[in-house]
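comment on this one:
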Amino acid sequence: MKSRSESLIRLKKFQVDEKRRQVSQIEMMVNDFVRMATEP
């Protein structure tokens, strides 16, 4: 069972990393939109 729990932990870490990347991309998009909206 140890190897199964280790693979589950690895999978969850991967999923968390993927979500972090997605959040980072969304934050960059928001920053771009704010910049575009405030440009003269």
The chain has a mean pLDDT of 95. Residues 31 and 37 are 10 Å apart (CA to CA). The chain is about 90% helix and 0% strand. The radius of gyration is 18 Å.
